Amino acid sequence: MDTILAYINHLLDAPFSLNVRYSAFYLCCTVIIAYAIWKFRGGAGSFTKWLLPKEVYHHKSNMLDIKLFFAVRFFASLGLLGAVFFPTTVAYIILDALAGADHKSPPSGWTRCAIATAIIVITSDFCKYWAHRAHHEWRVLWPFHAVHHSADVLTPLTVERVHPVEPIIRNILMTVIVGLVQGLALYTFVGKVDIVTIGGANAFYFAFNALGSNFRHSHIWISYGWVIEHILISPAQHQVHHSVARRHHDKNYGSIFALWDWMFGTLYIPTEREKLTFGVSDGTGEPIEQPYPTLVSALVLPFKESSETILRSVKTTPGLTQSLPPNTTKMTEGFSLWLDVLRAIAALTVLFGHMAHVRFTRGDYYFLREWNVASDAVAVFFVLSGVVIAYSARRDGNLGTYAFKRATRIASVLFPALILTLVFDAVGTRINMSAYPRDYYQALPLSEFVWRGMTVTNLWTGVSDWVRLGTNGPIWSLSYEVGFYLIFGSFVFLKGLMRAVVLATLVLLVGIPILALLPAWWLGVLLWNSCAKTSTTPTMASSWFMAIAGLAILVALKVAGVPQQLENLTIFVLQPHNHHSILVYSNEVLWNTVVAACIAIHLRGIWNLTQRMKLNNDTRVTKAVRWVAGGSFSIYLVHYPTLHLIDATLPETLPAYDLWMLGLTLAVCFGFAALFERPLKRFRSILKKMSASLTEVRPNGRLSP
C-alpha cells in the first residue's frame, strides 16, 4: 500500500514540481513563448493546431512516451533512480577532509555563492556531456539510451522516454566528479552549504527550464544563431542530435552548454532550418523500423542487447577471457547423493536452530542455540557450494553460460522470497508487533529493501552498511554466495589485466565479512579439483578413516569448547574494535573455517568410497533425500519470515504448538520450492524462449559505434 501511495504521489507531484521540465508552470511558459514565436512568424492558421499537430501527438511513438512516463515514475517512487547518486556525500567527504574539525567557514556573501554556483553548474553540465557521449559511444550503454532515440516524434514528454537503467548509469558516471568539484568549490568559496548557494543553483535551472528547455523535444525549430550556438545548445541543435541523417550522427551531446561540443569536436551548427527525420537508423542515414514498439520491449530488450555486446566483446577480445576444459572426471551418483544428504541436513539444521529461539519455542530447545548449530550448518553449506560450483564451472565451460546459470539459480528463488518477506512482514506486524523484536526485524524503506535485496548486496559492506531485509536475516548467506560466485567466476574465466581489475573491484565491494569466509567456501573448490586430479583410488581403510575422522574431529573440537576459544582469539586480535561490527555474521570466522576443513576431509573420504559404489536412484530413501535437498534454498530463504508470521498469528495455547509451527513452516518452504526452486529448468527454458522471441535481426542502431 505504501508503494502504491508513493507512486500516486509521484504522479500527482509531477504537474506541480519545479524539478521536472514538464511541470504545469514550465509548460505554461513554453506555451507563452511558443505563442510569441508563432505571432513573430506570421501567425498563420490556428495556433492550437500549430502547437499541437495531430501527426505528432496522436503518433504511436508519443503513446509509448506516455507509457514510459508512468513506468519511470514508478521506479522513481521506489527511489531506485537516485539510489546511486551521491555527489553530495562525496562533496561532504572532501569538505570534511580539507577543512577538519577546526575549520572556520569564510564569510558568506553573494559573490562567493555566485562563483560556487557557477562552478557547480558548469561542472555538472561537463559531466552530463561525457555521460551522454558515453551512452552513444560505448556499445554496452547504447541499447539503454537507444530507447530515448527511438522516438519517431518529439514532444516535451520525450524527455521521460528513457530506460530506467539510463539515469542510474548516468548518476554513477557523474557522482565522483560532480561530488569532488562540489566539495572543492564549497571549501574554497563558501565553506558551508546555505540557502543562498542552493538558491543560486536552483535559480539557474529554473531559468533554463522556464526559458524554453521544452522546445528541445518538440517540432518547433528555434535556433540561437551561429555565435550563441557555440556557447549554448539551442532546441534546433538538440533536434539535430535526434536526427537519423548521417551528417548529424555523434553531434551536439551538450545539455546546457555547447562549449563542450565545440572543444571536443562534436558541435554541429545548422545554417538554416533542416528537414529532420527522427528515430533510429542503420548507421548510413536510413531509418529502420521502430526497434521498441511496446513498453515490454523497451524495458527488456536493452538488457539483452547490452549483454550480447558484452559477450561478443568477451569472445572476440584476445587475452580477456578463457574457457575451461570440460570435466574429465564425472561426479558419481553416490557422491552426488551424499552432497544432497548434507545439503538437506544443513538446511533443516538452520531451521531447527532458529526455531529453538526463546521467542518461538519458549527455550525448550535452547541447547541448539547454545551449540550454535545454525552457524555450523551454513559453513557446511558453503563447502558444498564450493564443490558444486567448481564442478559446474567446468561443465559450463565459458563465462556466459556460467553467469546465466548462476544468475537464474539465484533469481528463481530470490525475487519471490523478497516478495514473500514483504507480504509476511506486512501482515504479521499489523497483527502482533511484539512478535517482531528490534534485533530480529529491520523495517527498511521499500526502495532500500528492493535495491539491496534484488542486488543481494545486503551484506556487502563495501557498498554500504549491512542491513537486515525485514525479518529475513538468513538471506545474508545468499549475499555471501553471490560474492563467492562473482569472485570465483572472475578468477577462473577472466585473464590478465581484466581479471586483476575486476577482482580488485569485487574485493572492495563485498567487504571484510564476505572475504573472511571466502577461504572456507574455496575449500570446496580445492576439494573438487583434488578429486578430479586423482588418478588412483585410495584403499578402503584410508577412505573410511578420512570420512569418519573429519566428522569425529569436528565433534571433538566442538565439545572441547574450541569455537569459543577461537572467537576469543578473534576478539583479542581486533581490539579495540568490536569484532561483530567488523565481521558481522563472520564473527566465528576461525571456527567456521575449521568446520569447512573437517567437512572437506570427510567429503574426500566419501569421494573415495563412492568410486566403488553403484547407486540405485529409484529407492524411496534416495528420492526422499533428493526431494528435501531440492528445496534447501527455499528453506534458507523462506523459513524466518514464516516463523515470525506464525509466531504473530498462531495461538500459543494450541495443542502441540511446536509441531504446528514446524509443520506449517515446512509446508510453506516446500510449497515455495515446488513453485520456484524445483522448476528451475523450466524457468531457464522460458527465459531462452522469451529472449529468442524478443530478438529480431535488425541493423545496428544509429550512432552505435
UniProtKB/TrEMBL annotation:
Keywords: Membrane, Transmembrane, Transmembrane helix. Residues 337-672 form the Acyltransferase domain. Signal peptide: none annotated. The chain crosses the membrane at residues 20-38, 68-94, 114-131, 171-189, 195-212, 337-357, 377-393, 413-431, 475-494, 501-523, 543-561, 659-676. GO terms for biological process: lipid biosynthetic process; polysaccharide biosynthetic process. Residues 118-266 form the Fatty acid hydroxylase domain. It comes from the Bacteria. GO terms for molecular function: acyltransferase activity, transferring groups other than amino-acyl groups; iron ion binding; oxidoreductase activity. Pfam families: Acyl_transf_3, FA_hydroxylase. GO terms for cellular component: membrane. This is Fatty acid hydroxylase superfamily protein.
